[in-house]
Amino acid sequence: MKELKLMKGNEALAEAAIRSGCDAYFGYPITPQSEVLEYLSTYAEQRTGMLVLQAESEVAAINMIYGAGGTGKRVMISSSSPGISLMQEGISYIACAEIPCVIVNVVRGGPGLGTIQPSQGDYFQAVKGGGHGDYKLIVLAPSTVQEMADFVPRAFELAFKYRNPVMILTDGALGQMMEKVELFEPIPRKTNIEPWATVGKPKTRERNILTSLHIEPDKMEQINLHLQAKYKTIQGNEIEYETYKCDDADVILTAYGLVARICKKSADLAREKGIKVGVFRPITLFPFPYKQLSKLSGKIKGILDVEMNAGQMVEDVRLAVEGKIPVEFHGRMGGIVPAPDEILQKIVRMDFFREEKFAGELI
Amino acid sequence: MNERTMLIEEENICIQENLVYEKPKTLLDTPMHYCPGCAHGVVHRLLAEAIDELGIQEDTIGVAPVGCSVFAYNYLDIDMQEAAHGRASAVATGIKRVLPDKYVFSYQGDGDLAAIGTGETLHTCNRGENILIVFINNGIYGMTGGQMAPTTLEGMKTTTTPFGRNVSLMGHPLKITDLIAQLPGVYYATRVAVNTPGNVRKAKKAILKSFQYQKEKKGLCFIEVVSNCPSNWKMTPLESNKWLEENMFPFYPLGDLKSPDGKSIKAAKGE
Predict the structure, then answer these.
(1) What are phi and psi of A119, to 5 degrees?
(2) Is A231 helix (H, G, I), strand (E, B) or coil?
(3) Which one of A28, B83, B154, B258 is most buried, counting C-beta atoms within 10 A?
(4) ipTM
(5) pLDDT at residue A361 above 60?
(6) Is A48 in the same domain as A188?
(7) Which residues from chain B sit within 8 angstroms of residue A198, using beta carbons?
(8) For the whole model, what pTM was predicted?
(9) Does residue B90 belong to the interface with chain A, where contact is any CB pair within 8 Å?
(10) pLDDT of residue B267
(11) Interface check B83 vs A, CB under 8 A
(12) Do A63 and B98 count as a contact with CB atoms less than 8 A apart?
Protein backbone atom coordinates (compact mmCIF):
# COMPACT_ATOMS: atom_id res chain seq x y z
CA MET A 1 0.00 0.00 0.00
CA LYS A 2 1.18 3.46 -0.84
CA GLU A 3 2.15 5.50 2.18
CA LEU A 4 1.34 9.18 1.97
CA LYS A 5 2.88 11.62 4.41
CA LEU A 6 3.23 15.35 4.89
CA MET A 7 6.94 15.89 5.41
CA LYS A 8 9.72 18.42 5.33
CA GLY A 9 12.17 17.91 2.49
CA ASN A 10 14.97 17.08 4.89
CA GLU A 11 12.79 14.54 6.70
CA ALA A 12 11.66 12.96 3.44
CA LEU A 13 15.29 12.60 2.43
CA ALA A 14 16.21 11.03 5.77
CA GLU A 15 13.22 8.69 5.64
CA ALA A 16 14.25 7.73 2.11
CA ALA A 17 17.74 6.89 3.35
CA ILE A 18 16.30 4.43 5.88
CA ARG A 19 14.01 2.97 3.21
CA SER A 20 16.93 2.71 0.77
CA GLY A 21 18.66 0.25 3.08
CA CYS A 22 21.37 2.75 3.88
CA ASP A 23 23.95 1.13 6.19
CA ALA A 24 25.59 4.18 7.71
CA TYR A 25 25.19 7.93 7.92
CA PHE A 26 27.81 10.34 9.25
CA GLY A 27 27.00 13.99 9.76
CA TYR A 28 27.52 17.22 11.58
CA PRO A 29 24.86 19.82 12.46
CA ILE A 30 24.46 22.79 10.16
CA THR A 31 21.41 24.83 9.22
CA PRO A 32 19.36 24.28 7.06
CA GLN A 33 19.90 20.50 7.00
CA SER A 34 20.18 19.46 10.65
CA GLU A 35 16.80 17.68 10.43
CA VAL A 36 18.46 14.93 8.41
CA LEU A 37 20.84 14.07 11.25
CA GLU A 38 18.08 14.53 13.85
CA TYR A 39 15.56 12.35 12.00
CA LEU A 40 18.07 9.59 11.41
CA SER A 41 19.32 9.75 15.03
CA THR A 42 15.72 9.24 16.16
CA TYR A 43 14.50 6.51 13.81
CA ALA A 44 17.24 4.81 11.83
CA GLU A 45 18.91 2.46 14.30
CA GLN A 46 15.69 0.99 15.68
CA ARG A 47 14.12 0.57 12.24
CA THR A 48 16.91 -1.10 10.25
CA GLY A 49 19.99 -1.19 12.48
CA MET A 50 21.47 1.57 10.34
CA LEU A 51 24.46 3.29 11.95
CA VAL A 52 24.16 7.02 12.59
CA LEU A 53 27.15 8.87 13.98
CA GLN A 54 27.53 12.57 14.68
CA ALA A 55 31.13 13.39 13.88
CA GLU A 56 33.26 16.14 15.39
CA SER A 57 33.44 18.02 12.09
CA GLU A 58 32.47 17.77 8.46
CA VAL A 59 36.11 16.94 7.76
CA ALA A 60 35.96 13.90 10.04
CA ALA A 61 32.49 12.94 8.76
CA ILE A 62 33.51 12.75 5.09
CA ASN A 63 36.54 10.66 6.04
CA MET A 64 34.31 8.30 8.01
CA ILE A 65 32.33 8.02 4.78
CA TYR A 66 35.57 7.14 2.98
CA GLY A 67 36.30 4.41 5.53
CA ALA A 68 32.80 2.97 5.79
CA GLY A 69 32.08 3.38 2.09
CA GLY A 70 35.33 1.54 1.40
CA THR A 71 33.81 -1.57 2.97
CA GLY A 72 31.20 -1.58 0.20
CA LYS A 73 28.30 -0.51 2.41
CA ARG A 74 25.63 2.02 1.44
CA VAL A 75 26.76 5.22 3.13
CA MET A 76 25.34 8.72 3.12
CA ILE A 77 26.37 12.13 4.41
CA SER A 78 24.58 15.47 4.34
CA SER A 79 25.53 19.04 5.04
CA SER A 80 25.01 22.57 3.81
CA SER A 81 27.34 24.79 1.79
CA PRO A 82 30.07 25.74 4.32
CA GLY A 83 30.18 22.14 5.53
CA ILE A 84 30.38 20.82 1.97
CA SER A 85 33.31 23.18 1.35
CA LEU A 86 35.09 21.56 4.29
CA MET A 87 34.48 18.13 2.77
CA GLN A 88 36.02 18.88 -0.62
CA GLU A 89 39.36 17.30 0.21
CA GLY A 90 37.68 14.07 1.25
CA ILE A 91 35.37 14.10 -1.76
CA SER A 92 38.36 14.36 -4.10
CA TYR A 93 39.98 11.34 -2.41
CA ILE A 94 36.68 9.44 -2.55
CA ALA A 95 36.27 10.19 -6.27
CA CYS A 96 39.78 8.96 -7.04
CA ALA A 97 39.56 5.86 -4.85
CA GLU A 98 36.14 5.24 -6.48
CA ILE A 99 34.19 4.79 -3.29
CA PRO A 100 30.43 4.84 -3.83
CA CYS A 101 28.53 7.17 -1.50
CA VAL A 102 25.70 9.68 -1.45
CA ILE A 103 26.47 13.27 -0.47
CA VAL A 104 23.61 15.70 0.11
CA ASN A 105 24.13 19.46 -0.09
CA VAL A 106 21.18 21.47 1.22
CA VAL A 107 22.57 24.68 -0.22
CA ARG A 108 22.45 28.01 1.61
CA GLY A 109 23.55 31.44 0.46
CA GLY A 110 27.22 32.34 0.41
CA PRO A 111 30.04 33.12 0.08
CA GLY A 112 31.48 32.63 3.55
CA LEU A 113 29.08 32.05 6.38
CA GLY A 114 26.52 33.78 4.15
CA THR A 115 22.95 33.12 5.09
CA ILE A 116 20.84 30.14 6.08
CA GLN A 117 18.34 30.96 3.33
CA PRO A 118 18.19 28.94 0.08
CA SER A 119 20.66 29.41 -2.74
CA GLN A 120 22.08 27.67 -5.81
CA GLY A 121 25.51 29.17 -5.32
CA ASP A 122 27.23 25.77 -5.12
CA TYR A 123 26.48 24.66 -8.71
CA PHE A 124 30.08 25.11 -9.86
CA GLN A 125 31.43 23.36 -6.77
CA ALA A 126 29.10 20.39 -7.26
CA VAL A 127 29.22 20.06 -11.04
CA LYS A 128 32.71 21.16 -12.02
CA GLY A 129 34.70 19.24 -9.42
CA GLY A 130 34.89 21.23 -6.21
CA GLY A 131 38.01 19.70 -4.77
CA HIS A 132 41.43 19.33 -6.39
CA GLY A 133 42.12 17.32 -9.52
CA ASP A 134 40.01 16.14 -12.45
CA TYR A 135 36.96 14.37 -11.14
CA LYS A 136 33.20 14.48 -11.40
CA LEU A 137 30.34 13.78 -9.09
CA ILE A 138 27.07 12.56 -10.49
CA VAL A 139 24.74 15.40 -9.46
CA LEU A 140 20.98 15.05 -9.05
CA ALA A 141 18.83 18.13 -8.48
CA PRO A 142 15.40 17.52 -6.94
CA SER A 143 12.71 20.17 -7.28
CA THR A 144 10.03 18.78 -4.97
CA VAL A 145 9.87 17.10 -1.56
CA GLN A 146 8.74 13.99 -3.44
CA GLU A 147 11.99 14.02 -5.38
CA MET A 148 13.98 14.64 -2.18
CA ALA A 149 12.79 11.16 -1.24
CA ASP A 150 12.84 9.47 -4.65
CA PHE A 151 16.33 10.58 -5.61
CA VAL A 152 17.95 8.86 -2.62
CA PRO A 153 17.58 5.24 -3.84
CA ARG A 154 18.39 6.46 -7.37
CA ALA A 155 21.56 8.06 -6.02
CA PHE A 156 22.63 4.82 -4.30
CA GLU A 157 21.94 2.87 -7.49
CA LEU A 158 24.12 5.22 -9.55
CA ALA A 159 26.85 5.33 -6.90
CA PHE A 160 27.29 1.56 -7.00
CA LYS A 161 26.73 1.22 -10.75
CA TYR A 162 29.69 3.52 -11.41
CA ARG A 163 31.65 3.31 -8.11
CA ASN A 164 31.32 7.07 -7.93
CA PRO A 165 30.18 9.60 -5.34
CA VAL A 166 26.72 10.98 -6.13
CA MET A 167 25.57 14.38 -4.90
CA ILE A 168 21.99 15.37 -4.30
CA LEU A 169 22.13 19.14 -4.80
CA THR A 170 19.14 20.73 -3.18
CA ASP A 171 18.55 23.94 -1.23
CA GLY A 172 17.38 25.32 2.08
CA ALA A 173 13.83 25.93 0.87
CA LEU A 174 13.33 22.38 -0.43
CA GLY A 175 14.89 21.08 2.77
CA GLN A 176 12.59 23.07 5.02
CA MET A 177 9.28 23.14 3.18
CA MET A 178 6.54 20.60 3.76
CA GLU A 179 4.75 18.74 1.00
CA LYS A 180 2.86 15.56 0.44
CA VAL A 181 5.21 12.62 -0.20
CA GLU A 182 4.39 9.17 -1.42
CA LEU A 183 6.97 6.94 0.23
CA PHE A 184 8.42 3.99 -1.64
CA GLU A 185 8.56 0.44 -0.34
CA PRO A 186 11.62 -0.21 1.83
CA ILE A 187 14.63 -1.76 0.13
CA PRO A 188 16.50 -4.36 2.24
CA ARG A 189 19.99 -3.55 3.46
CA LYS A 190 22.86 -4.92 1.43
CA THR A 191 24.16 -8.39 2.09
CA ASN A 192 26.51 -8.90 -0.87
CA ILE A 193 30.19 -8.06 -0.51
CA GLU A 194 31.66 -5.89 -3.24
CA PRO A 195 34.73 -7.49 -4.84
CA TRP A 196 36.80 -4.31 -4.37
CA ALA A 197 35.82 -3.64 -0.75
CA THR A 198 38.24 -3.68 2.17
CA VAL A 199 36.53 -6.12 4.50
CA GLY A 200 39.49 -8.34 5.42
CA LYS A 201 41.35 -10.38 2.82
CA PRO A 202 40.24 -14.00 2.47
CA LYS A 203 42.75 -16.52 1.09
CA THR A 204 40.81 -16.65 -2.16
CA ARG A 205 41.74 -13.19 -3.40
CA GLU A 206 44.52 -10.61 -3.51
CA ARG A 207 44.37 -7.83 -0.95
CA ASN A 208 42.17 -4.84 -1.76
CA ILE A 209 43.77 -1.42 -1.49
CA LEU A 210 41.72 1.75 -1.65
CA THR A 211 43.98 4.67 -2.39
CA SER A 212 44.20 7.81 -4.45
CA LEU A 213 48.00 7.79 -4.44
CA HIS A 214 49.86 6.62 -7.54
CA ILE A 215 53.25 8.21 -7.45
CA GLU A 216 54.38 7.08 -10.92
CA PRO A 217 53.06 9.54 -13.51
CA ASP A 218 52.30 6.75 -16.00
CA LYS A 219 50.09 5.00 -13.49
CA MET A 220 48.41 8.20 -12.36
CA GLU A 221 47.63 9.14 -15.93
CA GLN A 222 46.06 5.72 -16.45
CA ILE A 223 43.90 6.28 -13.36
CA ASN A 224 42.85 9.65 -14.76
CA LEU A 225 42.08 8.17 -18.19
CA HIS A 226 40.01 5.48 -16.51
CA LEU A 227 38.04 8.10 -14.56
CA GLN A 228 37.49 10.23 -17.67
CA ALA A 229 36.27 7.19 -19.62
CA LYS A 230 33.85 6.45 -16.79
CA TYR A 231 32.53 10.03 -16.82
CA LYS A 232 32.04 9.75 -20.56
CA THR A 233 30.00 6.59 -20.09
CA ILE A 234 27.92 8.35 -17.45
CA GLN A 235 27.42 11.28 -19.85
CA GLY A 236 26.17 8.78 -22.43
CA ASN A 237 23.88 6.78 -20.16
CA GLU A 238 22.46 8.75 -17.31
CA ILE A 239 21.18 12.13 -18.50
CA GLU A 240 17.81 13.06 -17.06
CA TYR A 241 15.85 16.22 -17.74
CA GLU A 242 12.30 17.48 -17.78
CA THR A 243 10.58 19.70 -20.34
CA TYR A 244 7.49 21.76 -19.63
CA LYS A 245 5.46 23.20 -22.52
CA CYS A 246 8.52 23.27 -24.75
CA ASP A 247 6.88 21.90 -27.90
CA ASP A 248 5.51 25.18 -29.23
CA ALA A 249 7.64 27.56 -27.17
CA ASP A 250 9.30 30.69 -28.56
CA VAL A 251 11.25 31.27 -25.38
CA ILE A 252 12.63 28.71 -22.99
CA LEU A 253 13.47 29.20 -19.35
CA THR A 254 16.34 27.00 -18.18
CA ALA A 255 16.46 26.32 -14.45
CA TYR A 256 17.09 23.49 -12.02
CA GLY A 257 15.73 22.47 -8.64
CA LEU A 258 13.36 24.80 -6.86
CA VAL A 259 13.75 27.54 -9.47
CA ALA A 260 12.54 25.23 -12.24
CA ARG A 261 9.30 24.92 -10.33
CA ILE A 262 8.94 28.67 -10.06
CA CYS A 263 9.72 28.97 -13.77
CA LYS A 264 6.81 26.67 -14.63
CA LYS A 265 4.52 29.16 -12.93
CA SER A 266 6.21 31.99 -14.87
CA ALA A 267 5.64 30.05 -18.11
CA ASP A 268 1.95 29.70 -17.26
CA LEU A 269 1.68 33.42 -16.49
CA ALA A 270 3.42 34.23 -19.78
CA ARG A 271 1.10 31.98 -21.74
CA GLU A 272 -1.88 33.76 -20.19
CA LYS A 273 -0.47 36.85 -21.85
CA GLY A 274 0.02 35.06 -25.15
CA ILE A 275 3.78 34.52 -24.94
CA LYS A 276 4.78 30.95 -25.62
CA VAL A 277 7.22 30.11 -22.86
CA GLY A 278 8.50 26.64 -21.93
CA VAL A 279 10.81 25.34 -19.22
CA PHE A 280 13.83 23.08 -19.67
CA ARG A 281 14.95 21.57 -16.38
CA PRO A 282 18.12 19.48 -16.14
CA ILE A 283 17.59 16.81 -13.46
CA THR A 284 21.13 15.48 -13.71
CA LEU A 285 23.46 18.49 -13.54
CA PHE A 286 26.34 16.17 -14.26
CA PRO A 287 25.83 14.66 -16.74
CA PHE A 288 24.36 17.85 -18.20
CA PRO A 289 21.85 17.48 -21.06
CA TYR A 290 23.91 19.46 -23.59
CA LYS A 291 22.65 17.64 -26.70
CA GLN A 292 19.02 17.74 -25.66
CA LEU A 293 19.15 21.46 -24.97
CA SER A 294 21.09 22.08 -28.17
CA LYS A 295 18.43 20.27 -30.18
CA LEU A 296 15.68 22.30 -28.55
CA SER A 297 17.51 25.56 -29.18
CA GLY A 298 17.05 25.10 -32.92
CA LYS A 299 13.34 25.73 -32.55
CA ILE A 300 13.27 28.78 -30.28
CA LYS A 301 14.13 32.48 -30.31
CA GLY A 302 16.10 32.63 -27.11
CA ILE A 303 16.72 31.35 -23.60
CA LEU A 304 16.41 32.98 -20.22
CA ASP A 305 18.39 31.07 -17.59
CA VAL A 306 17.16 31.64 -14.05
CA GLU A 307 19.14 30.68 -10.96
CA MET A 308 19.58 31.61 -7.31
CA ASN A 309 23.20 32.67 -7.90
CA ALA A 310 25.25 35.06 -10.01
CA GLY A 311 25.09 32.85 -13.10
CA GLN A 312 26.58 29.37 -12.89
CA MET A 313 24.51 26.81 -14.81
CA VAL A 314 24.06 29.47 -17.50
CA GLU A 315 27.63 28.68 -18.60
CA ASP A 316 26.57 25.11 -19.40
CA VAL A 317 23.45 26.41 -21.14
CA ARG A 318 25.65 28.62 -23.34
CA LEU A 319 27.98 25.68 -24.04
CA ALA A 320 24.93 23.67 -25.11
CA VAL A 321 23.48 26.25 -27.54
CA GLU A 322 26.91 27.25 -28.90
CA GLY A 323 25.89 30.82 -29.66
CA LYS A 324 23.07 29.79 -31.98
CA ILE A 325 20.51 31.83 -30.04
CA PRO A 326 20.72 34.52 -27.37
CA VAL A 327 20.98 33.32 -23.78
CA GLU A 328 20.17 35.80 -21.05
CA PHE A 329 20.40 35.37 -17.32
CA HIS A 330 18.35 36.35 -14.31
CA GLY A 331 19.69 35.56 -10.87
CA ARG A 332 18.95 36.37 -7.25
CA MET A 333 21.51 35.88 -4.51
CA GLY A 334 21.96 35.97 -0.78
CA GLY A 335 18.96 33.77 -0.03
CA ILE A 336 16.39 35.58 -2.19
CA VAL A 337 14.06 33.33 -4.16
CA PRO A 338 12.86 34.84 -7.47
CA ALA A 339 9.08 35.26 -7.81
CA PRO A 340 7.13 34.03 -10.88
CA ASP A 341 6.04 37.53 -11.98
CA GLU A 342 9.57 38.85 -11.48
CA ILE A 343 10.77 36.26 -13.99
CA LEU A 344 7.93 37.20 -16.35
CA GLN A 345 8.99 40.84 -16.22
CA LYS A 346 12.50 39.73 -17.10
CA ILE A 347 11.22 37.67 -20.04
CA VAL A 348 9.47 40.57 -21.70
CA ARG A 349 12.45 42.86 -21.20
CA MET A 350 15.01 40.54 -22.79
CA ASP A 351 17.01 42.12 -25.62
CA PHE A 352 16.24 39.49 -28.22
CA PHE A 353 12.62 39.63 -27.26
CA ARG A 354 12.38 43.37 -27.74
CA GLU A 355 14.08 43.10 -31.12
CA GLU A 356 11.46 40.61 -32.17
CA LYS A 357 8.87 43.15 -31.05
CA PHE A 358 7.00 40.38 -29.33
CA ALA A 359 6.23 42.22 -26.27
CA GLY A 360 5.45 45.77 -27.26
CA GLU A 361 1.96 45.73 -25.85
CA LEU A 362 2.80 43.57 -22.90
CA ILE A 363 5.10 45.69 -20.84
CA MET B 1 86.97 -23.39 6.02
CA ASN B 2 87.00 -23.69 2.25
CA GLU B 3 84.36 -22.30 -0.06
CA ARG B 4 82.66 -25.65 -0.48
CA THR B 5 82.08 -26.27 3.23
CA MET B 6 80.79 -22.73 3.63
CA LEU B 7 78.16 -23.42 0.98
CA ILE B 8 77.11 -26.63 2.69
CA GLU B 9 76.79 -24.87 6.03
CA GLU B 10 74.62 -22.16 4.50
CA GLU B 11 72.37 -24.83 3.06
CA ASN B 12 72.10 -26.41 6.50
CA ILE B 13 71.09 -23.13 8.00
CA CYS B 14 68.26 -22.95 5.51
CA ILE B 15 66.63 -26.20 6.47
CA GLN B 16 63.43 -25.81 8.38
CA GLU B 17 64.52 -27.13 11.78
CA ASN B 18 67.48 -24.75 11.86
CA LEU B 19 65.48 -21.62 11.16
CA VAL B 20 65.49 -19.05 13.92
CA TYR B 21 64.16 -16.17 11.88
CA GLU B 22 61.82 -15.84 8.93
CA LYS B 23 59.67 -13.32 7.18
CA PRO B 24 56.18 -13.09 8.64
CA LYS B 25 53.51 -14.33 6.22
CA THR B 26 51.69 -10.99 6.38
CA LEU B 27 54.81 -9.06 5.38
CA LEU B 28 55.14 -8.87 1.60
CA ASP B 29 58.39 -9.27 -0.35
CA THR B 30 58.23 -5.73 -1.72
CA PRO B 31 61.52 -3.91 -1.03
CA MET B 32 60.79 -1.10 1.44
CA HIS B 33 61.35 2.51 0.47
CA TYR B 34 62.37 3.46 4.00
CA CYS B 35 65.83 4.89 4.66
CA PRO B 36 68.52 2.69 6.25
CA GLY B 37 68.12 2.68 10.02
CA CYS B 38 64.50 3.91 9.98
CA ALA B 39 62.10 2.43 12.53
CA HIS B 40 59.15 2.09 10.14
CA GLY B 41 60.38 -1.20 8.72
CA VAL B 42 60.73 -2.72 12.18
CA VAL B 43 57.26 -1.60 13.26
CA HIS B 44 55.72 -2.92 10.01
CA ARG B 45 57.36 -6.24 10.70
CA LEU B 46 56.08 -6.29 14.28
CA LEU B 47 52.54 -5.64 13.06
CA ALA B 48 52.90 -8.47 10.54
CA GLU B 49 54.28 -10.82 13.22
CA ALA B 50 51.43 -9.96 15.58
CA ILE B 51 48.82 -10.47 12.87
CA ASP B 52 50.37 -13.84 11.99
CA GLU B 53 50.63 -15.02 15.58
CA LEU B 54 47.03 -14.07 16.32
CA GLY B 55 45.86 -15.57 13.02
CA ILE B 56 43.87 -12.47 12.12
CA GLN B 57 45.21 -11.69 8.64
CA GLU B 58 41.82 -12.31 7.03
CA ASP B 59 40.07 -10.09 9.54
CA THR B 60 42.40 -7.12 9.70
CA ILE B 61 41.99 -3.83 7.85
CA GLY B 62 44.70 -1.19 8.08
CA VAL B 63 44.64 2.53 7.38
CA ALA B 64 47.78 4.22 6.09
CA PRO B 65 48.38 7.94 6.57
CA VAL B 66 50.07 10.67 4.58
CA GLY B 67 53.75 10.79 5.48
CA CYS B 68 56.62 8.36 5.14
CA SER B 69 54.34 5.42 5.88
CA VAL B 70 51.93 6.44 3.10
CA PHE B 71 52.99 3.25 1.30
CA ALA B 72 52.45 0.96 4.30
CA TYR B 73 49.89 -0.89 2.20
CA ASN B 74 52.66 -1.96 -0.18
CA TYR B 75 54.25 -4.05 2.55
CA LEU B 76 51.41 -5.67 4.45
CA ASP B 77 49.36 -8.44 2.91
CA ILE B 78 46.01 -7.26 4.25
CA ASP B 79 43.16 -5.10 2.97
CA MET B 80 44.07 -1.46 3.47
CA GLN B 81 42.82 2.05 2.87
CA GLU B 82 44.96 5.12 2.26
CA ALA B 83 43.62 8.13 4.17
CA ALA B 84 43.95 11.85 3.60
CA HIS B 85 46.53 13.68 5.72
CA GLY B 86 45.51 13.54 9.37
CA ARG B 87 42.24 11.69 8.78
CA ALA B 88 43.35 8.09 9.30
CA SER B 89 41.56 7.71 12.62
CA ALA B 90 38.31 9.04 11.11
CA VAL B 91 38.67 6.59 8.23
CA ALA B 92 39.38 3.80 10.73
CA THR B 93 36.27 4.87 12.67
CA GLY B 94 34.19 4.53 9.51
CA ILE B 95 35.50 1.05 8.81
CA LYS B 96 35.19 -0.20 12.39
CA ARG B 97 31.67 1.14 12.89
CA VAL B 98 30.31 -0.85 9.97
CA LEU B 99 32.54 -3.90 10.55
CA PRO B 100 32.67 -4.07 14.36
CA ASP B 101 34.02 -7.63 14.44
CA LYS B 102 37.06 -6.93 12.27
CA TYR B 103 40.44 -5.73 13.55
CA VAL B 104 41.14 -2.17 12.46
CA PHE B 105 44.29 -0.14 12.98
CA SER B 106 45.60 3.18 11.76
CA TYR B 107 49.30 3.82 11.35
CA GLN B 108 50.26 7.49 11.59
CA GLY B 109 53.22 9.80 12.00
CA ASP B 110 53.53 12.79 14.29
CA GLY B 111 52.64 15.45 11.72
CA ASP B 112 49.66 13.43 10.57
CA LEU B 113 48.34 12.47 14.01
CA ALA B 114 49.37 15.37 16.24
CA ALA B 115 49.23 18.41 13.94
CA ILE B 116 46.80 18.30 11.02
CA GLY B 117 44.87 15.38 12.49
CA THR B 118 44.74 16.44 16.15
CA GLY B 119 40.97 16.91 16.07
CA GLU B 120 40.31 13.50 14.57
CA THR B 121 42.81 11.88 16.96
CA LEU B 122 41.28 13.40 20.10
CA HIS B 123 37.71 12.64 19.14
CA THR B 124 38.42 9.13 17.93
CA CYS B 125 40.10 8.47 21.28
CA ASN B 126 37.33 10.21 23.18
CA ARG B 127 34.64 8.12 21.49
CA GLY B 128 36.60 5.07 22.56
CA GLU B 129 36.59 3.64 19.07
CA ASN B 130 37.57 0.01 19.37
CA ILE B 131 40.65 0.33 17.17
CA LEU B 132 44.44 0.44 17.47
CA ILE B 133 46.33 3.62 16.64
CA VAL B 134 50.04 3.14 15.99
CA PHE B 135 51.77 6.49 16.29
CA ILE B 136 55.32 6.89 14.99
CA ASN B 137 56.92 9.90 16.69
CA ASN B 138 60.27 10.88 15.23
CA GLY B 139 59.94 14.59 15.91
CA ILE B 140 60.06 15.58 12.26
CA TYR B 141 58.19 15.60 8.94
CA GLY B 142 60.08 12.85 7.16
CA MET B 143 58.36 12.56 3.78
CA THR B 144 58.46 16.27 2.97
CA GLY B 145 62.12 16.57 3.87
CA GLY B 146 62.62 17.32 7.54
CA GLN B 147 60.40 20.21 8.59
CA MET B 148 59.35 20.97 12.18
CA ALA B 149 56.72 18.60 13.56
CA PRO B 150 54.41 19.17 16.54
CA THR B 151 56.70 16.82 18.46
CA THR B 152 60.00 18.48 17.48
CA LEU B 153 62.01 19.06 20.65
CA GLU B 154 62.86 22.51 21.96
CA GLY B 155 66.05 23.71 20.29
CA MET B 156 65.96 20.90 17.71
CA LYS B 157 67.10 21.97 14.25
CA THR B 158 64.87 21.20 11.26
CA THR B 159 64.59 22.78 7.81
CA THR B 160 61.91 25.14 9.11
CA THR B 161 63.63 25.74 12.47
CA PRO B 162 67.17 26.16 11.14
CA PHE B 163 68.23 27.87 14.39
CA GLY B 164 66.48 25.35 16.59
CA ARG B 165 62.84 25.23 17.73
CA ASN B 166 62.13 28.43 19.60
CA VAL B 167 59.16 27.61 21.80
CA SER B 168 58.21 31.25 22.27
CA LEU B 169 57.65 31.44 18.51
CA MET B 170 56.63 27.89 17.58
CA GLY B 171 55.04 26.56 20.72
CA HIS B 172 56.08 23.55 22.74
CA PRO B 173 56.50 19.97 21.59
CA LEU B 174 53.15 18.25 22.00
CA LYS B 175 52.94 15.19 24.25
CA ILE B 176 49.77 13.98 22.62
CA THR B 177 49.91 10.51 24.15
CA ASP B 178 49.85 12.06 27.64
CA LEU B 179 46.86 14.08 26.50
CA ILE B 180 44.78 11.24 25.09
CA ALA B 181 45.66 8.97 28.01
CA GLN B 182 43.39 11.18 30.13
CA LEU B 183 40.32 10.34 28.03
CA PRO B 184 37.92 7.70 29.34
CA GLY B 185 37.54 6.19 25.85
CA VAL B 186 41.21 5.17 25.83
CA TYR B 187 41.76 1.72 27.31
CA TYR B 188 45.47 1.36 26.80
CA ALA B 189 48.09 4.00 25.99
CA THR B 190 51.75 3.17 25.92
CA ARG B 191 55.02 4.59 24.68
CA VAL B 192 57.56 2.17 23.24
CA ALA B 193 60.63 2.22 21.02
CA VAL B 194 62.34 -0.18 18.61
CA ASN B 195 65.94 0.95 19.00
CA THR B 196 67.17 -2.14 20.89
CA PRO B 197 66.18 -5.83 20.79
CA GLY B 198 64.67 -5.46 24.27
CA ASN B 199 62.56 -2.50 23.22
CA VAL B 200 61.49 -4.28 20.03
CA ARG B 201 60.16 -7.15 22.14
CA LYS B 202 58.24 -4.74 24.39
CA ALA B 203 56.80 -2.97 21.36
CA LYS B 204 55.60 -6.26 19.94
CA LYS B 205 53.99 -7.17 23.24
CA ALA B 206 52.11 -3.85 23.17
CA ILE B 207 50.79 -4.61 19.68
CA LEU B 208 49.72 -8.13 20.66
CA LYS B 209 47.98 -6.81 23.77
CA SER B 210 46.22 -4.11 21.78
CA PHE B 211 44.76 -6.56 19.27
CA GLN B 212 43.68 -8.78 22.17
CA TYR B 213 41.92 -5.82 23.82
CA GLN B 214 40.30 -4.98 20.50
CA LYS B 215 38.99 -8.53 20.31
CA GLU B 216 37.52 -8.08 23.78
CA LYS B 217 36.00 -4.75 22.62
CA LYS B 218 37.71 -2.81 25.39
CA GLY B 219 38.10 0.48 23.55
CA LEU B 220 40.87 2.45 22.02
CA CYS B 221 44.49 1.31 22.20
CA PHE B 222 47.23 3.79 21.42
CA ILE B 223 50.88 2.89 20.89
CA GLU B 224 53.40 5.68 20.50
CA VAL B 225 56.67 4.48 19.03
CA VAL B 226 59.40 7.02 19.80
CA SER B 227 61.50 6.75 16.67
CA ASN B 228 64.51 8.04 14.85
CA CYS B 229 64.85 9.65 11.44
CA PRO B 230 68.49 9.30 10.43
CA SER B 231 68.06 11.03 7.04
CA ASN B 232 66.33 14.15 8.28
CA TRP B 233 68.17 14.28 11.58
CA LYS B 234 71.25 14.16 9.31
CA MET B 235 72.88 11.36 11.31
CA THR B 236 74.02 7.82 10.73
CA PRO B 237 71.56 5.20 12.02
CA LEU B 238 73.85 4.59 15.03
CA GLU B 239 74.17 8.29 15.81
CA SER B 240 70.41 8.70 15.48
CA ASN B 241 69.76 5.91 17.97
CA LYS B 242 72.16 7.54 20.40
CA TRP B 243 70.45 10.91 19.91
CA LEU B 244 67.09 9.21 20.40
CA GLU B 245 68.17 7.87 23.79
CA GLU B 246 69.84 11.07 24.94
CA ASN B 247 67.24 13.59 23.74
CA MET B 248 63.91 12.01 22.79
CA PHE B 249 63.54 9.51 25.67
CA PRO B 250 64.01 12.10 28.43
CA PHE B 251 61.15 14.16 26.98
CA TYR B 252 59.07 11.20 25.76
CA PRO B 253 59.77 8.58 28.44
CA LEU B 254 58.93 5.00 27.58
CA GLY B 255 56.30 3.05 29.47
CA ASP B 256 52.55 2.68 29.87
CA LEU B 257 50.62 5.90 30.23
CA LYS B 258 47.40 4.08 30.80
CA SER B 259 47.07 0.39 31.32
CA PRO B 260 44.14 -1.77 32.32
CA ASP B 261 45.90 -2.99 35.48
CA GLY B 262 46.18 0.61 36.65
CA LYS B 263 49.95 0.36 36.97
CA SER B 264 50.77 3.07 34.55
CA ILE B 265 51.67 6.28 34.92
CA LYS B 266 55.19 6.56 35.85
CA ALA B 267 55.87 7.73 32.37
CA ALA B 268 53.02 10.21 32.38
CA LYS B 269 54.44 11.91 35.42
CA GLY B 270 57.82 11.92 33.79
CA GLU B 271 59.42 10.19 36.73
Answers:
(1) -160, 165
(2) helix
(3) B83
(4) 0.94
(5) no
(6) yes
(7) 61, 79-81, 95
(8) 0.94
(9) yes
(10) 45
(11) yes
(12) no
